[in-house]
Amino acid sequence: MLDLDAVSSGYGETQVLYGLSLKAQQGRVLAVLGRNGAGKSTTLKTIMGLLPRRGGSITFEGRPIAARPFDIAQSGIAYVPETRDIFPSLTVRENLEIAARRFGGKGADWTLDRVVDLFPRLGERMRNGGAELSGGEQQMLAIARGLLMNPRLLILDEPTEGLAPIIVKLIHDKLMELKQAGLSMVLVEQNFGFATSLADDVVVVSKGQVVWSGSPAAIRADEAVQHRWLGV
Amino acid sequence: MTQDLSFWTLQTLNALQLSMLLFLLSIGLTVIFGLMHFVNLAHGALYALGAYIAATLAGTAGFWAAILLAPLGVALVGVVLYGGLIRRMRKSGPMAQVLVTFGLIFALLDLTRILWGDLALAMSMPAVLSGQVDLLGVSYPAYRLFIIVLGAAIFAALALVLARTQIGAMIRAGVDNDAMAACLGINVERLFFVVFCVGCALAGLAGAVAAPLLSVTPGMGLQILIPTLIVIVIGGLGSLKGAIAGSLIYGFVQTFGAVLAPQLASVLIYALLAAVLVIKPVGLFPAKG
Asked: So where does this one cross the membrane (chain A) (predicted)?
């Protein structure tokens, strides 16, 4: 459904991706693993149009992806960034409503009530400001906000980073629910156990290229790959 | 004189009147900057343009029509500026933006000279507002009171829109983080365009309501630019609260400085600006904490 072919990208003068290719399949979870600085977050930012693509092509559902983040979001991709990027000047409710605005109309799958069912904690925090949330709550809100866009593809950048184990477990269970409901996802993660237990497919990125791809079971069994590319 | 309560009342009203005028100018500039990190130095020239349009229309169409049409005319100029220049300058960095919009000041200045000449224009106020009003023991010009009420009403309206409406939430989200706002499917570019036009209209309105108080000259835009920039630097970029706080501080320091310590008046506001920059370099109420 999402196809990256020989994509090059980077920040300013610094090139990070060197002809990276990967495929995310409909209804499956693709985990993107790799060490710090390998180019995982850069890959997601390039997909979202937040970084300019210098080479290669990206197609989404068979069509070339739009250039601007606004159009890419409109085409059905929701992004949960590593920094969560909750709007501090907005309340929790406003953070959610702003995502539901365009995509949460009649007949939409995800509604405000449904994301609150998924993350009851957010229901208790509706009137709080975005700056008043704990890290775990911010992550829940970032995922809920993404879901309210009723995306066909959800891309998540290190959703477990900096969270307590109990929250990591909760996020894992919720993402598993979403996976079982058939939502397509691309998941960038440092947490090997978390990622391989959720994923259907795994790619490993190093120095801006995909260096390994296979199944979660295969990478769990292959200590040489883990050691060489992930430092596990 | 300073023991007299009416002195304080009178100067407070004068300070409020100056504050409200500055607020109308600074709110557009500061939100445009906060939303898109765009520096528009030509904002003052739009104020002058508002005054010219209003002064011209007032003679034929009357005061109220002039006050209504001048902001629309200036907003229209804003649309042209946006389409022709500003949209292309969005990603070109502050230095290029400052240079181009600074050049725009002179282009607009000469445009007003060509269209209206070098002589100062006068605009008369409507009969209902030309008298004095007795208020809290002082007799105060009704027209200045009208400016205070208008500024306060616009502040209230903007506060309501920003706090309670969806477009307000979108603007706040865009100021917080424009990249993430775009990733949620918000057309930040169009939002910026709308905010830019409203900012231009408010600058035009400020010029229009100021016209009967001042003589309308080509240089008035340049004169108001520095106070407006001081207001948004003191208040903090991007926020309504900063714009109103900065405007009130400037208005009161300037007005009371001029009557209580005339020899210090011209440096007082700069000293305050320097103090704010030392203690809180981002200003008092910046949109981004």
From this structure: none
- State whether A87 and B185 contact (CB < 8 Å): no
Is A99 in Cβ contact with B182 (below 8 Å)? Answer: no
* pTM of the predicted protein model: 0.88
Q: Which of A62, A38, A5 is nearest to A229 (CA)?
A: A38
Token readout for A16 is 């990070």
Q: How far is B2 from chain A (nearest CA, A)?
A: 43
* Coil, strand or helix at A19: strand
Q: Which CATH number is A2-76+152-230 given?
A: 3.40.50.300
- Give the architecture (CATH level 2) of B5-279: Orthogonal Bundle (1.10)
Contacts (Cβ under 8 Å, ≥6 apart) of A176: A198
Amino acid of residue A115: V
CA–CA separation, B222 and B108 (whole Å) = 11
What's the token pair of residue B242? 């900063």
Q: Is A12 within 8 Å of chain B by CB?
A: no
**A129: phi then psi, degrees, rounded to nearest 5:** -75, 155
> Are B105 and B66 a contacting pair, CB within 8 Å?
no
CA dist., res. B227 & res. B213, Å (int): 17
Mean pLDDT by 10 residues, chain A (232 residues): 96 93 96 94 96 95 95 96 95 94 78 94 94 94 96 96 95 96 96 95 96 95 90 70
Residue of A nearest to B190 (CA): A70
Q: Give the dihedral of Cα atoms A200, A166, A158, A94; nearest 10 deg.
A: 110
Where in chain A are the domains?
2-76+152-230, 88-151
Q: Give how far A65 is from chain B: nearest CA, Å.
A: 14
